[in-house]
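Q: Given only this backbone (158 positions), what sequence would you predict?
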């Protein structure tokens, strides 16, 4: 999988060198073009995993950016209006993430979203305690995080 990714990057740089245009949009187009070329030329089952992981990683990035923008707007609106809409609370979040990397990435992405902060992770690494600024329904928060961020993250990593 790493070999295919490096080949895709090499094809992207070759595309940028051939076109002579050093813009990120041109690099992204070269990356997509290289992805398509590698997908067409793929002959082994070993490298197919790469072609499933790249769209999952892109989906994770777009979902995270959307959630971060949504939370930023919510916090900015609350700061700019005279009335506070905060309902802070602490949620006990049971994790499906098992490895250190999965737990670390999940906790980092949750903490980077405005309005949430990781307080602690249990000793058995199965539960995360999260402080949430806008907690109307703890079960809904857990359900949305499990079906949204954690599911996408684990699909991209596993």
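A: Predicted residues:
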């Amino acid at each position: 999988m790493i070999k295919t990714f490096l080949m895709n990057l090499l094809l992207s740089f070759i595309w940028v060198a051939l076109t002579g245009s050093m813009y990120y949009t041109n690099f992204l187009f070269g990356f997509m073009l290289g992805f398509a070329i590698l997908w067409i030329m793929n002959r082994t089952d070993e490298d197919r995993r790469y072609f499933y992981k790249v769209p999952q990683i892109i989906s994770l990035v777009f979902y995270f950016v959307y959630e971060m923008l949504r939370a930023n707007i919510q916090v900015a609106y609350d700061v700019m209006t005279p009335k506070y809409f905060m309902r802070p609370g602490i949620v006990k979040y049971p994790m499906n993430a098992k490895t250190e990397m999965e737990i670390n990435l999940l906790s980092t992405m949750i903490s980077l979203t405005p309005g949430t902060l990781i307080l602690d992770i249990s000793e058995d690494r199965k539960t995360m305690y999260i402080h949430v600024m806008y907690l109307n329904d703890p079960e809904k928060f857990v359900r949305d995080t499990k079906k949204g961020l954690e599911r996408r993250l684990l699909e991209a990593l596993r």
